[in-house]
Amino acid sequence: MSKGVTEINKIRIDLQPEKRDEMMQKTGRRTVPQIYIDDRHIGGFDDLRALDLAGGLDSLLAA
Fold this sequence. Notes:
Number of helices: 3
Shape: globular
Structural class: alpha+beta
Oligomer: single chain
Radius of gyration: 12 Å
Distance between the termini: 19 Å
């Protein structure tokens, strides 16, 4: 999926186990990926895809 995103900040919880606890506290989820756009938690890939299909992703990326 190409939306013109040029910068992605990946946090590897497999390499930074302390970040796993932080992620679970912030999101309430244990699975990866957990996707944020700016400070807004989108969820996992399925949530991102649903947002795109509903027409809400482009406006978030444009902001």
